[in-house]
Amino acid sequence: MPTRPTAAAPRAGAREWLGLSVLLLPTTVLFLSMTVLFLATPQIAADLKPSSGQLLWINDVYGLVMAGLLVAMGTAGDRIGRRTVLLFGAAAFGAASAVAAFAPDAATLIAARAAMGVGAAAVMPSTLSLISTMFRDGRQRGTAIGLWAASVSVGVAIGPLVGGMLLESFWWGSALLVGVPTMALLLIAAPILVPEHRTDDAGTLDVPSVMLSMAALLPIVYGIKEFAKHGLTATAVLTALAGVLLAVVFVRRQLRLATPLLDVRLFAYRTFSGALAVFLLSAIALGGVYLLFTQYLQLVAGLSPLESGLWILPAALALVAVSMAAPKIARRVRPAYVVASGAALSVAGYLVLTQVEAAGLPLLITGFYLLYPGIAPTMALATNLVIGSAPPDKAGAASAVNTTASDLGVSLGIAVLGSLGAAVYRSQMPDDAPATSAETLPDALAAAETLPPQQATALVDQARDAFTQGLNAAAAGAALLTALAAVLAITLLRHIPAADTSAPTTEASKQEELAAA
């Protein structure tokens, strides 16, 4: 039976595009904040003198709190108002950044970083869900989400560059103050340019579900991070297992509620779950290799943080360009094939990295310049498919799930591929090497400073060769994961036609997807 034609979605005007620019700036800053502090860790250690455990929490607590609250904040935006939650998050993040920048001790810095995570968890899903509200036209929304994905990549890429520039001229707190003027601008401009949106019949926020979502995600992410740092310890296993059990309780509760915090039935739809799977695998691959890549630049090639950031910048610019072009290409080519083509480019880049040697900076840069822009179609189109496949009143929750997949993917990448690289490093270090040098490359470089020149040179060369072989192994694993993502894209998303990457979910399309699944 022929379907009745639907009315064309209204097109966004100048006010919506100005509002988008307001939303993209804090998105860039939030992802910049995830990387910029790593460069400041030595200065923080010298100034605040934290314990080893406190130093880990200074770096980890921001991402842990953010991951644990993303789903709750995204769904709260659907109920309370997405702009309201956005403004709350901006205020919290800006105030906490100022406190963190001038923290007099480690405990204060940890608490402030946790508060920054609360603010980031409110801002991230709100920006993405508001984009879906402001841009109803499928093509315009694809372009807007492509720009959002580009702003994410810019934040990750320029973090080392901005951090290096600030730390060469100012104290470590300057790296945290970047968010203050940005959030102040958002608080002023968003009420003028960004419309409010909430679901009228969403019901009340289920507080037990909020607590369960936090109680499930935080142990899982913490367990992954513990595994990445210390291996398969009892703490890592038991913590992650507790999170998984609480996640089961959370899902069972959502299935019983009339208005759940997260509509887990969305995962039954092939577009939603398929796009998330592709995004998750791509994030795992990039997360693990990106960490080792930046360490190679500084610890093997001997570049400064600023020089490393400058080498990364061209790849970031290419990623921005591809993120903007991908939605336009998807108007003529099925998005599954666009995503798979980008993944194939990334696979080629990872394979190049498997051939890098300790003196192989040109080959390393070549591989990275291939793999990094290759993930752009996945970031732009898979995100668009996740948001577009969810009903409009679930956009906040869908945005939160998408962002959580990204955060968990990076954590898993560091845990799995980072641990693989570390295991190869340990296996390649000679038995007669100093005990302190057998665990990590920084430990080996520190141990070399205590040895006579000839022995120090030999140890540094051995450690750098071992680290490079670990990078080769991690890159091989990333190539396999990305190839799997390409296969999933073609098999699970090829039913989506060109120029329809963000068609709204209807009851008819739901039934078609369930039948196809």
Keywords:
single chain; 517 residues; mainly alpha; 0% strand; globular; disordered N terminus; disordered C terminus
Distance between the termini: 22 Å
Strand content: under 5%
Radius of gyration: 23 Å
Indicate the percent of residues in helices.
Answer: over 70%
Poorly predicted sequence stretches spanning 5 or more consecutive residues: 1-6, 501-517
Q: Main sheet? A: none
Q: How many beta strands in the DSSP annotation?
A: 0
- Kindly report the average pLDDT value: 79
Number of H- or I-type helical stretches: 17
Order of helices and strands: HHHHHHHHHHHHHHHHH
What's the assembly state of these chains?
single chain
**What is the overall silhouette?**
globular
Alpha-beta content class: mainly alpha
How is the topology of this model organized?
Blueprint: H1 14-48, H2 52-80, H3 82-101, H4 106-134, H5 138-169, H6 179-193, H7 207-230, H8 234-256, H9 270-300, H10 305-329, H11 335-353, H12 361-374, H13 376-389, H14 395-428, H15 441-448, H16 453-493, H17 507-516
Helix pairs in contact: 1-2, 1-4, 1-5, 1-6, 2-3, 2-4, 2-7, 2-14, 3-4, 3-6, 4-5, 4-14, 5-10, 5-13, 7-8, 7-14, 9-13, 9-14, 9-16, 10-12, 10-13, 11-12, 11-13, 11-16, 13-14, 14-16, 15-16
Describe this structure in words.
The protein is an all-alpha fold and 517 residues long. It has 17 helices and no strands. The chain has helices spanning 14-48, 52-80, 82-101, 106-134, 138-169, 179-193, 207-230, 234-256, 270-300, 305-329, 335-353, 361-374, 376-389, 395-428, 441-448, 453-493, 507-516. The chain is globular. The two termini are 22 Å apart.
